[in-house]
Amino acid sequence: MTQSGRPGPRVKSVRWSAPAVAGAVIVGLMAVLAVVGPMVWGAAADRIDAAAILQGASSEHPLGTDNLGRDLLARVLVAGRYSLLLALAATLIGAFAGVVLGTLPSVLPARGARLVTGTVNALVAFPGLLLAMFTAVVAGLGARGAVLGIGAAIAPGFARLTQTLAATVAGSDYVAAARMLGVPRRRILTRHVLPNIAEPLILNLAQSLGGALLGLAGMSFLGLGVQPPDFDWGRLLFDGFPRIYVTPEVALGPAAAIALAGIGFNLLGDALARAAARTPAVRRPPAAPPGEAAGEPDAGAVLEVEDLTVTFPGGATPVRGLSLSVAPGEIVGLVGESGSGKSLTAAAIGGLVPYPGTVGYARLRLAGQDVATMTGKELGTALAMVFQDPLAALNPALKVGGQLAEVAVVHEGTGRAEARRRAVARLGQVHLPDPEARSRQHPHELSGGMRQRAVIAMGLMGTPRLIVADEPTTALDVTVQRQILRLLREVVDGSGAAGLFISHDIAVVGELCDRVVVMYAGRVVEELPADRLAEGAAHPYTRALIASLPDLDTDRSRPLAGIPGVQPAPAQVGPGCAFAPRCALASERCSAERPELVAHGPAQRVACWEVS
Amino acid sequence: MIIRNLSVRFGAFTAVDDVTLEIPDGTIVGLVGESGSGKSSLARAVCGLVPHTGAVEGARRVQMVFQDPYASLNPRMTVAQTIAEGAGRKEVERLLGLVQLPVEFAGRYPRELSGGQRQRVAIARALGGDPGLLVADEITSSLDVSVQGAVLNLVRGLRDELGLAMLFISHNLAVVRYVADVVAVMHRGRLVEVGPAEQVVGEPAHDYTRTLLAAVPRLKGRTGLRE
């Protein structure tokens, strides 16, 4: 999250899939046809030939001729411009009306806003084509009526989309701030709301164009649209349709043109929407760092990690050569600022590093077994993970008890009734009040603390050897935080499992954990027993973290110590100590040569030239 | 300024129940309580963002700084445009100086800034509205500790420099104790204790305050959290 300096220019590489290419080519051809069609084939389309009335396909007239002997292929090619222009006009009318209707509730007083919203809701429920025909009949037969009709049919959808998007932006903090600064409503709309919803609206425009084209063709086909002597594709289809059993090509020509254009616009619209939604994908997965021969395994440890590295394409290495071990009944705290690699370490242990990251290690063993050789089932029961947002870890549609029971059913093949009984027992074990009743509730009915308890109970459904908790209390109040920390301690003590607790809050880590591992820019910079944290921390970064945290004894007359500068991004770590640029003790050696983690008194290790 | 008999009701639920609280100029009043205690509703009512009964007297204008600096800045507006919305173009440079950001930041977009820098921009925007009262709602709880310290120092500096009255809301008593002159403890919509910061922390009068104090994580005298 922290960023140093100004990022370089963003190059958004759009990868073209086959449908996207096809869509772009078709739309491009349609545009060319619209420009040159009438110039090239205009004369041929209007040439009346009494000798060639109502003919079928021939070498001279590939699509046949109409009742005045005019060449139908030329007419189809010429009609492209008119058809596309009408579709464009209808889409723009619909989009404009829709955006106005959709944004009105944001600027009108409450009663007016409700009226507009209600009207839009009613119109959305009304069948589009019926709305189009109704408008067209009222507005008068012909191209104008058809365009207005299709515009009217498109408008409610646009209005609803605009309204939904605008409501999201209108509820944001920056709009609240603007209101407090006295910025007028109209200006809030033009400066804050519209720019932030423009992108999805424009995407919708491209897709609507295809729909408008088909809709207009439909209107003309029904005789409600373009009237002779004008003609669009729909009109040509209408004229050719009575002859479809005798000379089908006269109807199939315009039909194919309509279908092709409709497909083109929809493919392109889809591709644009997908490109906008997609986070830039990265290619070229790098070779994983080779795992070196590891030393002697530590028989007593539940979790052994040696030389763990997480790499992302492009040279970013958020976790570099990390080693740690956790003994049964022990809780090890992993602490560092955002971007230090602590959460990715947890993800690597659980096999959850997001694509396209790659994990390399000399050893990564859980309960004596290499995690790479463990099946999903084995890992699922031996490892329990608790995350910051319990709501994201629970399925909102399922009842809490059922979700917990599922774990036992899937991993251990337990029967439904037995699994349910165990789920209720586990919910009781994490001190959820009235577990029987709570197990029949949905996650949204529980408070944040209760949900986190439920997630911990879910981890206890198996027989976890390791409990990894990644910022499990960051979203909770101090009072609830304390309860959850107590619970984690109790669970670890009771089950003999090992605990890995990850947090940015060194005070929380210090209070709960037995040992603390401090990470900076992807590496461990210090490792020490938690009870030595207050007095015995050696690394300048650890000391700075502690000093910058106010506690109940902090001297209020002095400014809080801060850490100047920012942590380097994973791709920008130099050869020396990553903390050197922010360190008061840094010497020339620090920025040139990286200090290794070395013993510093009993049970403590530090990576620093100046203190070791 | 003074908040007098302020209540906020959502249907049958009373989020803030008849709160009276004085915030003199040049004073930071810290408001603590757990989520659901009504402290954010009180803040929003003071800012006029939710309907309420009661009065906010003596404050010319109230401005607010929000919790999440990633959601409180318009991503399509530069730092200068954001700050200028309340203050006008000419004031941008002075306000950036007040929150200790370099002038070069004026042309940048929020995505180019770190969390701490964004929060400074949000503070500058609020100061641009010439507030008689600044409401800060959990403004450091989404920041790293190293950044939190700098923002807390800035807040105290602004009080001294501008004689600002501030309502500083947090669930962390250690943070509130450090930054505030007066601490008000809120529980279930009511103020249960108000007093000088050192006194509330040193000799808490209310049980709920003691519960909050006991929950503050501390490095000294750690217990490992065993019962």
Task: Give a quick precis of the structure.
Chain B: InterPro entries: AAA+_ATPase, ABC_transp_ATP-bind, ABC_transporter-like_ATP-bd, ABC_transporter-like_CS, Oligopep_ABC_C, P-loop_NTPase. Helices cover 50% and strands 11% of the residues of chain A.
Describe the structure.
The complex is a heterodimer of chains A (612) and B (227). Chain A has a domain at 18-277: MetI-like fold (Orthogonal Bundle), CATH 1.10.3720. Chain A is built from 21 helices and 13 strands. Chain A is an alpha/beta fold and 612 residues long. Chain A is elongated, with a radius of gyration of 34 Å. Chain A has an eight-stranded mixed β-sheet with strand order 7-8-9-3-10-11-13-12, sandwiched between helices. In chain A, strands 1, 2, 4, 5 and 6 form a five-stranded antiparallel β-sheet that branches. The longest helix of chain A has 37 residues, at 185-221. Chain B is α/β, with parallel strands linked by helices and 227 residues long. Chain B has a domain at 1-58 and 170-227: 3-Layer(aba) Sandwich (Rossmann fold), CATH 3.40.50.300. Chain B is 34% helix and 25% strand. Chain B has eight helices and nine strands. Chain B has a six-stranded mixed β-sheet with strand order 5-6-7-3-8-9, with helices on both faces. In chain B, strands 2-1-4 form a three-stranded antiparallel β-sheet, covered by helices on one side. In chain B, helix 5 (145-162) links the parallel strand 6 (133-137) and strand 7 (166-170). At the A-B interface, helix 6, helix 7, helix 17, helix 18 and helix 20 of A face strand 5, helix 2, helix 4, helix 5 and helix 6 of B.
> Distance between the terminal alpha carbons of chain A, to the nearest Å?
31 Å
- The residue fraction in helices of chain B comes out at 25-40%
Assign an overall shape of chain B: globular
Mean pLDDT across all amino acids of chain B: 90
Roughly how much helix do the residues of chain A carry, as a percent range?
Answer: 40-55%
The major beta sheet of chain A can be summarized as: 8 strands, mixed
- Determine the N-to-C terminus distance of chain B: 45 Å
Biggest sheet features of chain B: 6 strands, mixed
Q: What is the class of the domain at 18-277 in chain A in the CATH system?
A: Mainly Alpha
Query: DSSP strand (E) fraction of chain B?
Result: 15-25%
Form type of chain A: elongated
Strand content of chain A: 5-15%
**CATH fold name of the domain at 18-277 in chain A:** MetI-like fold
The total strand number of chain B stands at: 9
Name the CATH architecture of the domain at 18-277 in chain A: Orthogonal Bundle
Structural class of chain B: alpha/beta
Q: What's the average pLDDT of chain A?
A: 86
The CATH class of the domain at 1-58 and 170-227 in chain B is Alpha Beta
CATH superfamily of the domain at 18-277 in chain A: MetI-like
Number of helices of chain A: 21
Q: If strands are numbered along the chain, what order do they take across the biggest sheet of chain B? A: 5-6-7-3-8-9
